[in-house]
Amino acid sequence: NVLEPIFEREFCEHSYGFRPGRGAKDALRRVDGLLREGGRYVVDADLKSYFDTIPHDRLMALVEGRVADGRVLSLIRRFLKQGVLDGLQAWTPVQGTPQGAVISPLLANIYLHPLDSLMRDAGYEMTRYADDFVVLCRSLDEAERALTMIRQWAG
């Protein structure tokens, strides 16, 4: 995969899903450590139907910001626009990544990287595994601010 080395080195430390050398146990250990350090308020989120709802235009803008090779970009676009046959009805998706495809988890991480960075840069202790994440906060006010920031990012 030519994309993984480009993006992997930029992904945030607190992102654990579908990444080399990282797993669910690592994410749980981090959450446990943050709880022991005083995180008492938890913002717990699971992005509903995440893989099916990633907007292609926003995802491609992120990929295009790091990948210049037109052939690679064209291949990703074709992958995302694969026709779908639903019964006898065929259609072309404008959002979502095909589940089960090798590249889909990487594309999903690319799409969520700006949220990871936003939360990290704002000083929040977020731990993400794929489309599930928690933000551990020391106060209710901090948790409410974190939730507001997440909602604003999600648009």
How would you portray this structure in words?
There is one protein chain. By secondary structure, this protein is α+β, with helices and mostly antiparallel strands. Helices cover 49% and strands 15% of the residues. The protein has helices at residues 3-8, 24-36, 50-53, 56-64, 70-80, 104-121, 140-154; strands spanning 41-46, 84-86, 89-91, 125-129, 132-137. Helix 4 (56-64) crosses helix 6. The protein is globular, with a radius of gyration of 17 Å. The two termini are 31 Å apart. The model has no long low-confidence stretch (mean pLDDT 94).
Gist of the model:
This is Reverse transcriptase domain-containing protein. With 155 residues, this protein is α+β, with helices and mostly antiparallel strands.
What's the topology here?
Elements: H1 3-8, H2 24-36, E1 41-46, H3 50-53, H4 56-64, H5 70-80, E2 84-86, E3 89-91, H6 104-121, E4 125-129, E5 132-137, H7 140-154
Antiparallel strand pairs: 1-5, 2-3, 4-5
| Secondary-structure element pattern, one letter each | HHEHHHEEHEEH
Structural class: alpha+beta
- The value of Rg in angstroms is 17 Å
Strand content: 5-15%
Mean pLDDT: 94
Distance between the termini: 31 Å
Uncertain segments: none
Q: Order of strands across the biggest sheet? A: 1-5-4
Major β-sheet annotation: 3 strands, antiparallel
Query: How many discrete structural domains?
Result: 1
Shape: globular
Q: Count the helices. How many?
A: 7
- How many strands in all? 5
Helical fraction equals 40-55%
